[in-house]
């Protein structure tokens, strides 16, 4: 939680709390704690959202790069309207029609 501070021991925390108490006073301490809590929650939420967007982007990129499983035909949608590619789609190959790859020693 306070990893950005580094190695903070017990005496350092006591000193920080004492300084905050002297600077802000005991009456504003609860308000300050609430504000720090809200800011911390907003930072965590933004961090989670950023991580989710990065993960979704990587997942989307990986799904586009993955080749189609062997023996299955990939549908690319309807043919172009201008007739540029009028060849019929290839039929899927059966398992016995596929020869194993040549072995290289």
Description:
This protein has 105 residues and is an all-alpha fold. The chain has a domain at 27-64. 50% of the residues lie in helices and 0% in strands. The protein starts with 9 loop residues before the first helix and ends in a 40-residue tail after the last helix.
Radius of gyration, taken over Cα atoms and rounded to an integer in Å? 31 Å
Helix content: 40-55%
Number of strands: 0
> For the residues shown, what is the average pLDDT?
75
Q: Report the order of strands and helices.
A: HH
Strand content: under 5%
Uncertain runs are: none
Main sheet summary: none
- Quick one: overall form? elongated
Oligomer, anyone?
single chain
Structural class: mainly alpha
Name the features.
single chain; mainly alpha; 0% strand; elongated
List the helices and strands and how they pair.
Layout: H1 10-24, H2 29-65
Summarize the model shown.
This protein has 105 residues and is mainly α.
